[in-house]
Design brief:
By secondary structure, the chain is an alpha/beta fold. 34% of the residues lie in helices and 15% in strands. It is built from eight helices and ten strands.
Length: 270
């Protein structure tokens, strides 16, 4: 077994704080769907991400000796691993997967919980997600929860003890972008924990919009791994996240129906 140490990134002026740990990057990336481990490594490095998700049911991190091991290219000493429950359709399966991750990763408690409702839409099953959340929080896990874009459910998961809430922007892998920005905005405005868009991002502008809405970060996999050039797309996503965050902090001008001169003529001489 590899000993996993949660990374301690350098202090940042505007850090993302999850479960008491500061991160410089607000982009979280997955490790699936790449053509090989080398492409996984290169794209992850280009993204600048510090938190990397790992699908425990699909990825070998030591439970299958003799097979390629993700930890050979994604070092736990460099990245914070975020085991996820992708592929789970019941609370029981999700809880079992998180317990397995904690065993494989020497007591690692930070997990991404997702319990899916069906194979076609991959929308979350909220009832099963609530059941799993109650158990995992009680067992000491630090839960980052995947949910729909319902502000009421987002607040409930926060009240249950989740360290971050991750509403979808659109169905997983769809690349449709943020379909309901007003729901996401409402979630952000009422949150006391980090809100990270999870699922639906297709390109850099989608990531920038999520950040401009005030989201604390974005998690993506397919948008990068499925691009024609995953490494280049990872670099683009890094820039988009940074630009979107800076735009949010700067504060955009109000939208107006009519023009407003960049150089007003009031008080000038003719």
């Amino acid at each position: 077994m590899s000993t996993v140490m949660q990374s301690q990134p350098r202090p940042a002026a505007d850090p993302l704080v999850i479960a008491g740990v500061e991160y410089r990057s607000r982009l979280l990336v997955g490790t699936g769907k790449y053509k090989d481990l080398e492409e996984t490594r290169a794209a992850t490095e280009a993204s600048g991400a510090e938190i990397v998700t790992v699908a425990i049911r699909r990825t070998n991190i030591g439970q299958r000796p003799g097979e390629p091991n993700l930890l050979d290219v994604i070092s736990p000493e460099r990245y914070t691993l975020l085991p996820n429950t992708a592929g789970c359709y019941t609370a029981e399966d999700a809880v079992r997967t998180c317990r397995l991750a904690r065993e494989l990763l020497d007591g690692h408690e930070l997990v991404k919980l997702e319990v899916l409702g069906d194979e076609k839409t991959l929308f979350p099953d909220i009832v099963e997600t609530i059941k799993a959340t109650e158990i995992l929080v009680r067992e000491g896990f630090q839960v980052m929860v995947y949910t729909n874009d319902d502000p009421i459910m987002a607040r409930r998961f926060e009240d249950m003890g989740c360290v971050a809430v991750m509403p979808l922007a659109a169905p997983i892998g769809s690349g449709l972008g943020i379909r309901n920005p007003y729901n996401i905005l409402t979630i952000v405005e009422n949150a006391g924990v980090p809100i990270l868009v999870d699922a639906g991002v297709g390109t850099a502008s989608d990531a920038a919009i999520a950040m401009e809405l005030g989201c604390d970060g974005v998690l993506m996999n397919t948008a990068i791994a499925g691009a024609r050039d995953p490494v280049l797309m990872a670099a683009a996503m890094k820039k988009a996240i940074e630009a979107g965050r800076e735009a949010f902090r700067a504060g955009r001008i109000p939208r107006k129906r009519y023009a407003s001169a960049s150089s007003p003529i009031d008080g000038t001489f003719f």
